[in-house]
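User: Here's a chain of 118 residues. Predict its fold as tokens.
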Amino acid sequence: MGITSETRDCMAQRPRNNNKYNNSFLIPSPAEDQRILESKRCTQEGVRAGMKAAAIACVVTAVPTLTAVRVIPWAKANLNYTAQALIISGASIASYFITADKTILECARRNAQYDKTA
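Assistant: Prediction complete.
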């Protein structure tokens, strides 16, 4: 069972990419290019801040978790390697996404205020 020849012909005639910049009649404005560059910069800034926060959270949670597993009898009996990894990675992942989200939103807010004044 394949597609019918009518459907195939219709799909072949349809344009593949609906990108508005692909059309030769539309030229993106410099302001639009500036917004795209600013959004990319904000995203990169958010990723950078998120990675820093995740690294700090990893150390801050790993030290007490690994110490507790070796010292506290309950933790020694109940927290296997998987549980330890989940505790550490859960804190790191949460801090990454929270920090990246806050940074991107703050950067977008700054750009919106900049656009209003211009």
